[in-house]
Amino acid sequence: MAGACRVLLVAAVLPLVAQTFETQDRAHAHTYASVSATAFANAARAVRAGNKMLLAASREQVESEAERLFGAYLAKYDRVHPSPVERARRLAMFKEHLHHVADLNRQPKTPGHTATYGITEFADWSDDEFEARLGLVRDAKAMPANLTSVGPPGGQCTSTDATPKHTCQQTWNDTSFNNASVDKAWDWRGVPNVITPVKNQASCGGCWAFSATETVEATWAINQMVDLGPLSVQQILDCDDEKSGSCCGGLPYHALSYVVNNLDHTIQGLVTEKSNPFTCGKSGCHSGSAATCGEWYNSYGCASCKNCKVDSLTTKNPTKMPLGSYAYVIGTCECPYIDKAKDANYELNMRAALRWIGPLAVTVDAYPWKGYTGGIIRRHCSSTAENHAVQAVGYGEEIVEGEAIPYWIVRNSWGPAWGEEGFLRVYRGENTCGIASLCTFGWL
Do 154 and 3 form a contact (C-beta atoms < 8 A)? Predict the structure, then answer.
């Protein structure tokens, strides 16, 4: 994949951390309805205090507080372990997590790295459980026949046949595209309807489908189409079966290619989340059945998850869905804004693409995000081992001790209680966490 462009200060940190945790608590209060308000408030308060402690905790402090914090964690996240043996196993993993995040917080701060780590929903998850949730799968099959290639700096760039307003080639080397008129800071969250509420993929390794769906939502809104609200992630999980593995993983580009290729069929583009809600949150990685996942699409000829035979739908339901009940893109690009072979970084071009075209589906190494609670990440993740798909929705700078720290604003799919209200910030300009390695956008 290298070089290929395929189109398709603890004291100073504490106030912000406290504010972030309180926002997370409000989000959780709506998520875990079975916990009483009083029990939840007490548990959330204990976890919040624990996260402050973990900013500068010794190993001795972690050991002495682990059992108490584990009880608060279980109450806050409404987790029940079925046996004393399982509870003891989870407590051991929880302790290991506490030591790990405390170690990260104790490390000398690199200039530009302000990230903090603590107790999150995943604090008693095993590494294998967390890794399975990430859900990015590299190309396993040949590219579709309707893709063509062009050649920007850094290697091959492939796109769908439709001509975009800004070609993929432009995003690399057109000075009229990447010039001084590009805003120094931009956040699509401030533009009405472009960024829908943060979603939660739960136990499904479908991050690739979430980031692709969010990119269609944003492209649709930016082009001033009718506001449909959130679109159906479930449709992609069910029906993009040629190249992707439903909750077992996939690539955003394949999901967007499915949307493009779907326009001539009965199911056009993506329907709304309301008409086909996400039902695979507890499914994990499985082959699926109509009874548990994808039941809605049975009326359109889909037998099960990952078994949506779009080509046969025209005979089953020849009446196309009415315009206004679905959204779409007519083309998609997949480009790396990094050339690893030449050690060249094109994140200025990526910034222009995000500003002029819209939010980007990006691939990242999110393994170290397991305990992320806020701030800008510049360390602790790989730039060459992407395992998760998210959406870059903006960029900006933060002044810390007189230094301007550039960052990307990233939307995750782990719910609004994680990170900074479901978002995080990643250092900009060094391909941190591999964020510039593979970027996908659509167009109308």
Answer: yes
Token couple for 266: 């009965």
CB count in 10 Å sphere of residue 324: 9
Taking CA 396 as the corner, what is the angle to CA 336 and CA 404, rounded to the nearest 5 degrees? 110
Which residue shows structure tokens 């108490």? Answer: 68
CA angle 309, 284, 228 (to 5 degrees): 60
Residue holding tokens 């209200």? 421
Residue 193 falls in the annotated catalytic set: no
Among 97, 113, 254, 388, the active-site one is 388
* pLDDT tens digits, 59-84: 999 999 999 999 999 999 999 999 99
In a domain, 313, yes or no: yes
Q: How confident is the model at residue 412 (pLDDT cuts 50, 70, 90)?
A: very high
Alpha carbon of 441 to those of 10, 217, 285, 434: distances in Å?
Answer: 38, 11, 26, 17
User: So what's the pLDDT on residue 282?
Assistant: 54
**Residue 412 among the catalytic residues:** yes
Which residue is catalytic, options 51, 178, 276, 412? 412
Please indicate, yes or no, if residue 292 is contained in any of the structural domains: yes
Closest CA to 424 of 404, 403, 380: 380
d(Cα 104, Cα 102) in Å, to the nearest integer?
5
Domain that holds residue 207: 148-161+203-331
Give, to the nearest 10 degrees, the angle between helix 37-54 and helix 84-106: 40
Q: Is residue 392 part of a domain?
A: no
222: CATH: 3.90.70
Q: Which two tokens stand for residue 152?
A: 């920007």
Cα separation, 196 vs 209, whole angstroms: 15
Counting Cα atoms < 13 Å in the Cβ hemisphere of 50 gives 30
Asked if 94 and 124 count as a contact pair (C-beta separation under 8 A), the reply is yes
Q: What's the token pair of residue 339?
A: 């050339």
- Distance in angstroms (rounded) separating the CA atoms of residues 329 and 229: 16
Q: How many domains does the chain have?
A: 1
Q: Is residue 306 part of a domain?
A: yes
Q: What digits encode the pLDDT tens for the residues 213-223?
A: 999 999 999 98
pTM above 0.85, yes or no: no
Decide: residue 377, CB within 10 A, 0-12 exposed, 13-18 middle, 19+ buried.
buried
